[in-house]
Amino acid sequence: MTWIWIVPIAGILSILFVVYLARDVLSRDTGTPEMTRVGGTIHEGAVAFLRRQYQTIGLLAIITAVIIAILIGLFERYSETNITGMALGIRTGIAFLVGATASAISGIIGMYVAVQSNQRTASAARDGVGPALIVALRGGAVSGFLVVSLSLLGVFLMFLLYGGLSHPQDAPFLIVGMGFGASFVALFAQLGGGIYTKAADVGADLVGKVEAGIPEDDPRNAAVVADLVGDNVGDCAGRGADLFESTVAENIGAMILGVALYLRTQDPAWIFFPLVVRSFGLIACMVGIFTVNYREGEQPMDALNRGYYVSMLLSAVGLFISTYFLLGQGWLWFFVAGLIGLLTSLAFVYITMYYTEARWRP
User: Fold this and answer.
1) What is the pTM for the complete model shown?
2) For the chain, where are the alpha helices, taking DSSP H only?
């Protein structure tokens, strides 16, 4: 069980890294008064939308958690664990609320930093592509690292609270509700932000361009500002909640599969192996962020790819360490499977570049 403690270490390091990135982005120059005015308007609209949206989501999440707890308590008579009835319902309801809360936190903080980094990226672009690339990357990395770190820490803490150290075969089934809570918030965040931004987009085109003759994306058009608010709310807060839900579901699902092997081998490493692997990946990506440095005259994607290559290489090393020390005699097959996944992701990077960049022919 010693290896499981790398999970909270990696999660806490990632949170500290998020704080560093956020402070770095927020300390950058905010640009001209016009940039500040437009950026402030977008920020004000985004905060107002999120406040109203998450008030509704929070109320619905509490009601849903209570309903889930009652239904499970009344009708659930069979469980993969020794806990049934109302005890199982209460645990599932609490896990639901934890997942919903963590998902909302990751989305809200990610959106706030994204809105602030938008303005600072525009300001940095006056000095060239390189500074703008770094600000944009670090602003986006705040949301990415926050999502994964909260997912890791959330699943780990729920695993411990639900008896993971003493009964590791039961805990993964008891925290399934956390995935449902994260999915609940992600669903409403994506739908709300998507509908909002699309309505504003259509309104901006119809009224601004067609009727009033205002150029596209002109800040004088209020619908354009609303559209930009929707982009931040839907693509940052909504996408952050969606990614959080995906990582939680992946972690818990893989842990449940590990229970089947634990019952045959009595080795708990099969259960928490997914969390350890993701922890190594998180550390690898931290290093990768620092290796992204723009060189004058090169394509921005080339600078990003260098960080990706470093992260992928370090992730492969972490995968080797995890499989070799945790999975016993069959470690090689799991390592090869993970390596194929890494190489496949690399292949899709090049496939996407080939079909979207202007450097290659159709």
Assistant:
1) 0.87
2) 6-26, 33-75, 85-124, 129-161, 171-174, 176-203, 222-232, 239-265, 269-290, 300-326, 331-356
